Amino acid sequence: MFSGIVEEAATVVGVTDEGTNRHLRIKCSFADELTIDQSVAHNGVCLTVVELHPDSTYTVTAIEETLRRSNLGALVEGSSVNLERSMKLDGRLDGHIVQGHVDCTAECVSVAETDGSHYFTFAYEVSPELEHQGYFTVEKGSVTVNGVSLTVCDSAPGRFSVAIIPYTFEHTNFGKLREGDRVNLEFDILGKYVARLNSIR
Questions:
Q1: For 173-199, what is each residue's pLDDT tens digit?
Q2: Could you give the CA distance from residue 34 to residue 153 in angstroms, rounded to a whole number?
Q3: Residue 143's CB: how many other CB atoms inside 10 A?
Q4: Residues 6+ positions from 58 with CB-CB distance below 8 Å
Q5: What does the pLDDT average to over 20-31?
Q6: In whole angstroms, how far apart are CA 127 and each of 38, 105, 148, 182?
Q7: Does the structure show a pLDDT above 70 at 201?
Q8: CA-CA distance, 102 to 183, in Å (whole number)?
Q9: Can you give the pTM of this predicted structure?
Q10: CA 171 → CA 20, 83, 128, 164, distances in Å?
């Protein structure tokens, strides 16, 4: 379980394909604190640490299903990736409840700067069946974009915007995001439960 508060925008230093799996080697400041089998969110995708290396790097493996549903398959050496370790039960929930299970990807269709902040607009496609299961955004609701917990503005079917403060822009990979790039989305789990309850009444 995660909160959507990114700890670091780390760097991919190695990519190795093995069958349909992809091994990603990541360099970050807290790599030496990690343990084998620990869960870490990468652009919002929960992956398990499978190897630790002496050069402050570690390796995780993404399977075919994960690569298909997320933007991890587009990562190359030098790519920036948002990292968050799992929540501690004795800590504050500064973002919102994030599972690390990406629902779909979205395309960045607009980036605009306004008095130091940035507005990003994203477009996504989900089936009507998934929409009925809560795969949508609502005005002032929560959404996770590349692992970052954000508040939705200008929500519309298949489209929404978010406002990014300077700190988030500088400390996550939002600072490198451009029109046409794809991001990972996780819709609010509370909305999914509400939609599910309404569907069985």
A1: 999 999 999 999 999 998 888 888 887
A2: 36
A3: 26
A4: 25, 26, 28, 31, 34, 49, 51, 52
A5: 97
A6: 33, 13, 24, 18
A7: no
A8: 10
A9: 0.90
A10: 32, 11, 35, 11
